[in-house]
## 1
Amino acid sequence: MFDSQVMMSRLKDFDITLQEEDADIVVVNSCTVTNGADSNVRTYINHMRNLNKEIYLTGCGAHTKGESLFEQEKVFGVFGQSEKERINSLLNEKKRFYELGDLDFIDENIVEEFAGKSRAFIKIQEGCNFRCSYCIIPFVRGDARSMDEEQILRQIEILAANGFGEFVLSGTNVGSYGHRQGHSIAGLMKRISLIRGVRRIRIGSLEPIQVTGEFMEILDEPWLEKHLHIALQHTSDDMLRLMNRRNRYASDLKLFEKLAEKGFALGTDFIVGHPGETDAVWDEAINNLRRLPLTHIHPFTYSKRDGTPSALMKPEINGAVSKIRMKTVVETVDENNLLFRQRSKIPLEVLIENEKAGLYHGLDQFFNRVIIKSHDDLTGNWVTLENYEVRKDHNYAEL
Ligand code: SF4
């Protein structure tokens, strides 16, 4: 999203449309997290070729599939992330090109506005030093490196002056921010909170070991979103070892309980069906998961990624079994989420994002969806709700 925004802001000689049918040129900013993602990109590119579009490929997929797509002449040009600022001149090139650029590249862009959004996404770092067995990201995004702190602050100052109040800190492994420079995510957030106009700060995702003593000290700050997304990926230690993860269940449970006591809504990533997730492992995992005070979940069904250690692991888990496990995980956390919202006594601070058919949609400080019926145009506003109805999938109010 950030990368797309940068590219859109650099296109001077072209008109931008988000509707492919209106376009002569299609720039595919691709993801490569799974083999599935790569094959979706291929299918999409073939489809666009049939519509006679001139196609360019960028994003992580440029690193994994760019070469073959370029050789097969399915795309006119391929460019890596570090080259995205040159998009205007690249798209003016008359000759086909393949320019992956530098994998250790770090952004120095200031994006001043995010069209149509009330929250601004700020990329603060890139890459990852972890080597989870199933993950291709470090190979396509490189090792962790951070954006310059002063640059980030300047970026947020401009956005805040342009009316943005909520900032989402994003990256590949956001919690590793600043480790090379001796900075930290907590330190950065404290500095961001001092900028005039900043009302709420959210972190895309943290690893459990990144919730340090220093981080614990900012938990009571009013500007910190009362929701943390902490990536566990699994709740069985056997699986965590196979996945080459750095977290373990007992300490994860302790951490989550401590955060829940402080009133936080808690989310996580969870992978079902990774090789080795036998019935016994699963039984342990689901029991453990039920003990966690989780309110949000971002579950994935394991998808093999060639070139990763997990791709060679056995036994593989049948897709139908994974599907059932996935359903159990989602239902468990959905129930928790409903209970959390029913028990919550605190007024909701909602940032309204958009309107659909007279209903305004936004997110509260717990990262829960709120729908408000109103005759006033609330888009982009902050609304405090004392009275609202807790519905199964969201909270609802009329103003
Ligand atoms: S921490 Fe995240 S990005 Fe890094 S290797 Fe693990 S899953 Fe991939």
Note: The domain at 119-343 is CATH 3.80.30.20 (pyruvate-formate lyase- activating enzyme).
## 2
Amino acid sequence: MKTCTSCTQELDDSSFYIRKASKDGLSRLCKVCDNQAKRQWRELNKEKYQASNKEYHSKNREKINSKSAEWRKDNREAFLESMRKWREKNKHRQAQHAMRYNASKLGATPSWLTGEQLTEMNSKYLEMVELNREHGKNSFHVDHVVPLKGKDVCGLHVPWNLEVKTSYENISKGNRTYPDSWASVSSGFDVLSK
Ligand SMILES: [Zn+2]
């Protein structure tokens, strides 16, 4: 057992990260506080960190470029594999970004969304990727229940207006009209009328 110096809770040793430099081999902070501190540090030092990174890159651009080109040539397989992995891991982001971009163009993204709600939205895209993995590529999409550019009402880019559906449903939706299918989804809805 060990007491976290931040939240002062007495916790099991497994709740602390290993830190070889300290006497008992454990971090002073529990994992939760440690992560929070790291996050805060990154947040506070974001600009500094980004600026120094940027400076390094612009000073050493040629060296970095030729080095990575060389590496890619020598490690073509590994490079393609890491690209593939990155795409796989970020699949949900592509769909998410496209929808977010479109929503912001239409002015359908409210500024008052909380972090929790954004996480909720994120999880819909992750769910889509998971379902596509199971049922085959492109068989599921994330869609707006009420379209952002509906005929009579316009939906918002918010968690409760997002749903994961089969692509079949998504395509057939093209002919839906509002507000006749509106009643089923209208509870607790924010609508922008245009
Ligand atoms: Zn703590």
Note: The pocket of zinc ion is lined by residues 4, 6-7, 9, 29-30, 32-33 (CB under 6 Å).
## 3
Amino acid sequence: MNSKIAFLDRDGTLIENAHYLSDPDGVRLLAGTTQGLLELKRRGFLLVLVSNQSGVGRGYFPESAVESVNQRLQDLLRPQGAQLDLLLYCPHQPEADCRCRKPRPGMVEQACQRLGLGLEGAIVVGDSDCDMQLAEGLGVPGYRIGSKLLPRLDSLAGLLDQV
Ligand SMILES: [Mg+2]
Ligand SMILES: [Zn+2]
């Protein structure tokens, strides 16, 4: 029963945080990512990537670079069956004042519409203030990777089971 969504940040959450990563060869999964994603799937979550990629709007790299990095991420996850269900990103710089840049809910709204799901049971996982603000704005639980409670993604299952 895939009826709820896990909204996942990319950089610093699923893969190592590299400054304005645009090279697919630079994609490194963080320890615990694959296992953590598998455990989310097992609990009935659809996995939706929501990533701010302002490097596009700032002119540092084209959207095709974001697509290549995301593709590489999927290629690393697929052998274990941990691939993501939907990958979204905001290419705008903050000054563009768009609706999709986290913590604004544009990407979440888009995902819900495309998947035909609401926010019931949804969670947000990220490593930044904007991810936690996104969760707060949506009124869903936010889990911060790198915190004491959640050092890595495969610690999440234990937290979810406590609820
Ligand atoms: Mg991040
Ligand atoms: Zn945007």
Note: The mean pLDDT is 96.
